[in-house]
Design goal:
Layout: H1 6-11, H2 21-37, H3 41-49, H4 55-62, E1 69-71, E2 94-101, E3 104-111, H5 122-138, E4 142-146, H6 157-173, E5 179-183, E6 186-188, H7 193-197, E7 200-204, E8 209-211, H8 215-222, H9 228-232, H10 234-241, E9 246-248, H11 251-262, H12 289-292, H13 303-310, E10 316-319, E11 327-334, E12 337-344, H14 355-370, E13 375-381, H15 388-392, H16 395-408, E14 413-422, H17 423-428, E15 438-441, E16 446-448, H18 452-459, H19 461-466, H20 470-485, H21 490-493, E17 499-500, H22 506-517
Parallel strand pairs: 3-4, 4-5, 5-7, 6-8, 7-9, 12-13, 13-14, 14-15, 14-16, 15-17
Antiparallel strand pairs: 1-2, 2-3, 10-11, 11-12
């Protein structure tokens, strides 16, 4: 046996004391307490000082009390260099697990900004990959609570590669389980693409931002000075870019609305949305509807008032409320059953379809179809928005997105023509000819190739020009065109409308029709996937 010098003996690490079972349990409790506590009280105070909650506080707001089951709480990174080996906190900056919302399973991951600024490292990414895989396998919604500074620079490309795994899983889960991204802090660079791949994006004003290149880079490259919120804040993405579906003033309200959205969505694409027992009578008449929609097609009105009168208790959740306001997309209930509503908004741009409205409605229709949500389309559309900017911006291609989405949808589809339905916009807005199951109309409907004035100017231009009184001749021709081709029963007589109904009866007719369509089954052609006009 070789003798060791005193120096050599002093360098040897003393063996850890052997603990009994009780000692091991105490050790586990101490480690778990450290993981739950987080890095330091100072870091928590700094988070609160910014008006932000911690990752675990956010999870507690989202999930039912006491339902959270953490996964990977003891995970730590194994990176070295740049001082990382001396700083190995538990969770590695992201809290992952599952719980319930209204008793239904939901998976969640939440960045912890107190640890490495919520930046994504290799271990951090592996935890997210794991929980995403579990959500897909279990067939349950996934909610991400985002508050991170992008990739962890100290880990180099190993950290960056983690985003690829997230994007791949976002895409694999698309249309399979609901994916909801809640932006509660910064989200820059490639990290912004994961929320963009999900079904819904929530943002909080002042505290959350999303952008690919930050203000400093923008100024360096373009010379333009812009703030973080001015570049990628909640109002910018909710009202200008359309990246965010919802924007709220505080985290508590935001997360409460996430819970409400989840109550309207199925757990996966193999289930129907959760139904509830409606207190609002199915046969309730809507006498107010006659006065809400003026018979004069040139008078605007708020389509939201019509929706409130039709749906259960007047409650609905509008998606993209502040973007492309000339069209409304909303989730609501009719007799306790979830329905997706797409409606022209005459109060904004007369309800015309343009590039943004087409994109907004197309994405919403796709989402409804993916998750077995019947679609109700309320039409009052004078056409597509004319103009050089629209044509050069690709209104043909963007309008085709909405057309493709409707034609591809196999869920129950009902269209209701309230007033104007002109030209190609009428066809695109789920007309019977592109597959609407049931098409209804009010007696105020005007279904035509174009408005009577425009039609008369085209058809009778020679007679009008040759008349002694051109204006009187034009008025007579407009009246003649309306009487011949635009009376309320013209389309019904030709089978393009299944029925003309009284406005007051609309709610009961819609509910009865949806009940009939509940067992609808339609197959698409066998194919890998279509090639929509992206």
């Amino acid at each position: 046996m070789t003798d060791l010098s005193e120096a050599e003996r002093s360098d040897r690490t003393e063996p850890a004391p052997v603990l009994d079972a009780q000692g091991r349990v105490a050790e586990l409790r101490a480690i778990r307490a450290e993981a739950l506590r987080g890095p330091s009280e100072k870091a928590t105070e700094a988070q609160h000082a910014k008006g932000k909650l911690t990752a675990r506080e956010r999870i507690d707001l989202l999930l039912d009390d006491g339902s959270f089951q953490e996964v990977g709480g003891l995970r730590r990174h194994r990176a070295t260099g740049f001082g990382l080996e001396a700083k190995r906190p538990y969770t590695d900056g992201v809290v992952t697990g599952w719980g319930t919302v209204d008793g239904r399973t939901v998976f969640v991951y939440a960045h912890d900004f107190r640890i490495f600024g919520g930046a994504l490292g290799e271990a951090h990414a592996a935890k997210i990959h794991k929980i995403m895989d579990m959500a897909i396998a279990a067939g349950a919604p996934l909610v991400s609570l985002n508050d991170g500074a992008g990739a962890r620079i100290q880990e180099g490309v190993s950290a960056l590669a983690g985003y690829g795994g997230i994007f791949q899983r976002n895409t694999r889960a698309s249309g399979v389980i609901p994916q909801i991204s809640v932006m509660l802090g910064p989200c820059a660079g490639g990290a912004a693409y994961s929320p963009a791949l999900t079904d819904f994006v929530f943002m909080v004003r002042e505290t959350s931002q999303m952008f690919i290149t930050g203000p400093d880079v923008v100024q360096a490259v373009t010379g333009a000075e812009v703030t973080h919120n001015g570049l990628g804040g909640a109002d910018v993405h909710a009202g200008t870019s359309g990246v965010a579906h919802f924007a709220y003033d505080d985290e508590e309200t935001c997360i409460e609305e996430v819970r409400y959205l989840l109550s309207l969505l199925p757990s996966n694409n193999r289930e129907n949305p959760p139904a509830v027992t409606a207190k609002d009578p199915a046969d309730r008449r809507g006498e107010a509807l006659v006065d809400l929609v003026p018979a004069d097609g040139n008078r605007p009105y708020d389509m939201r008032s019509v929706i409130e009168e039709l749906v259960d208790d007047g409650e609905y959740l509008e998606v993209h409320e502040r973007w492309a306001q000339n069209i409304i997309c909303a989730l609501a209930r009719l007799d306790g059953q979830v329905v997706g509503i797409v409606a022209n908004q005459p109060q904004s741009m007369a309800g015309v379809l343009d590039i943004h409205a087409s994109e907004k409605a197309a994405r919403f229709v796709q989402m409804c179809d993916a998750f077995n949500i019947p679609i109700l389309t309320l039409l009052d559309v004078p056409g597509f928005l004319p103009g050089v900017d629209q044509e050069h911006g690709g209104i043909i291609r963007h309008g085709a997105k909405l057309l493709y989405a409707y034609c591809n949808a196999t869920v129950p589809r009902i269209s209701l023509i309230l007033r104007k339905a002109y030209g190609g916009a009428y066809i695109v807005m789920d007309s019977q000819t592109i597959g609407a199951d049931v098409t209804l109309a009010w007696p105020t409907n005007e279904i035509a190739v174009m408005g009577a004035e425009g039609a008369a100017n085209v058809i009778f231009r020679r007679q009008i020009a040759a008349a002694e009184d051109p204006e009187a001749m034009r008025a007579r021709m407009v009246k003649e065109y309306k009487a011949e081709l635009m009376h309320p029963y013209y389309a019904a007589e030709r089978g393009l409308v299944d029925d003309v109904i009284e406005p007051a009866e609309t709610r009961s007719v819609l509910i009865g029709t949806l009940a009939m369509l509940r067992t609808k089954h339609a197959d698409l052609p066998v194919r890998k996937h279509g090639n929509p006009p992206l």
